[in-house]
Design a protein that fits this description.
The chain has twelve helices and 13 strands. The strands form four sheets. Strands 8-9-10-13-12 form a five-stranded mixed β-barrel. Strands 6-5-7 form a three-stranded parallel sheet. With about 350 residues, it is an alpha+beta fold. The protein has helices at about 10-15, 25-35, 50-65, 90-95, 100, 135-140, 155-160, 180-190, 210, 220-230, 325-330, 340-345; strands spanning about 80, 85-90, 105-110, 115, 130-135, 165-170, 200, 245-255, 270-280, 290-300, 300-305, 315-320, 345-350. Helix 3 (about 50-65) packs across helix 7.
């Protein structure tokens, strides 16, 4: 049997009492390993193997079928293709073994990217009636920067199994709160990602029950946020670069989110959040004095200049709308500012800052 925290049974019982359905894939993974004789997890990485992930997607799909929560829809015509991938996993990287050992650390797997009838990679569908919130276990075979291929992640496999589109909000690390935080921000900014949803699936690694930050996050409806905006009209204005545009600004750092030490986490890339004030360089009719900005702080386990910034530093940046790049960069490991009010502001994308 899979190892469990001593409090797991009580946790499961409390979920059931609250009307929350739980799909614990631990037993499925152990049974699969015993039946096939192959491991469920990568040898060189902290994540599961693609065939184990696909088995879990199938098992979850079977459960949803029995619950009959989803109405029948026309099949989108998804199909799977096969691709061989070789990579040196995050465990091997973090071990920092001598150079002569590196060649022994490569691992090969076969993934199954999901494509549509036109042969294009599967993509998230916001209008779907299924929403998946997921961490790096959803991302591992979907986010190409993680080194294990693209288009073959958990959302893709679940969508293939259900034969229907799926909406997703995924981000590496912090499964206990990161995607809840992202959903709350989407709602706060007027994008109702829960509209029309019949099933919301929240995937997180079980280690979050031991080490996760289960902070309380308010989830306000779009109507509630509109009422708040009407009451606070005329107060401090935050910059939100319009989609498709870029704006050159300068501002003073008020606060920064934390940055991990290279090699200390299973993710080689990281984005930090900066709160800027005293904005200058804006042209009329833009009237903003502050901004929340995302910047690259680490790429390929190497710290970038933004990681060395401190409050009081003055930055000159070219900012773009986060909505222009969210699909491309939104799944990367990212840290947020502690101030909950700042978390609800529309972020801007600053990319890689160079002094």
């Amino acid at each position: 049997r899979p190892l469990q925290n001593p409090s797991f049974e009580d946790f499961a019982a409390r979920l059931k009492e609250s009307g929350v359905l739980m799909f614990d894939c631990g037993g499925l993974l152990v049974d699969r390993k015993n039946q096939t004789g192959t491991p469920s997890f990568l040898v060189t990485d902290t994540h599961w193997r693609p065939e184990a992930m696909e088995a879990v997607a199938d098992g979850l799909g079977d459960l949803l079928d029995t619950l009959t929560l989803l109405p029948a829809v026309e099949s989108p015509g998804y199909r799977r293709v096969e691709e061989a991938v070789t990579n040196r996993g995050d465990l091997a990287v973090m071990l920092r073994l001598p150079g002569r050992e590196v060649r022994k650390q490569n691992e090969a797997v076969r993934i199954h990217p999901v494509v549509n009838a036109r042969g294009e990679f599967w993509s998230s569908t916001p209008s779907s009636d299924v929403l998946l919130l997921g961490d790096s276990f959803s991302n591992i075979f979907s986010l190409d920067a993680m080194g294990w291929g693209a288009g073959a992640g958990f959302a893709e496999q679940l969508s293939f199994r259900l034969r229907r589109p799926v909406d997703r909000i995924v981000r590496n690390d912090a499964g206990a709160f990161a995607t809840r935080e992202m959903l709350a921000r989407e709602m706060a900014q007027g994008r109702d990602r829960l509209a029309g949803k019949k099933v919301v699936i929240w995937e997180f690694a079980i280690r979050e029950l031991s080490v996760g930050d289960w902070k309380s996050l308010p989830l306000k409806t779009v109507a509630e946020m509109e009422a708040i905006r009407s009451r606070t009209a005329g107060e401090s204005v935050f910059l939100a670069v319009p989609a498709g545009q870029s704006i050159r600004v300068s501002g003073t750092i008020q606060a920064l989110s934390p940055v991990p030490r290279p090699g200390s986490v299973p993710y080689k890339d990281h984005i930090l959040t900066v709160h800027l004030a005293g904005l200058e360089g804006l042209e009329e009719p833009v009237d903003a004095r502050e901004a929340v900005v995302y910047l690259w702080s680490m790429r390929d386990n190497k710290l970038l200049p933004a990681a060395r910034c401190r409050p009081g530093d003055r930055l000159n940046l070219t900012l773009k709308s986060w909505s222009d790049v969210a699909e491309q960069y939104g799944s990367f490991n990212r840290s947020e500012l502690e101030d909950e009010d700042l978390q609800l502001q529309t972020p801007n994308w600053g990319g890689e800052w160079n002094p």
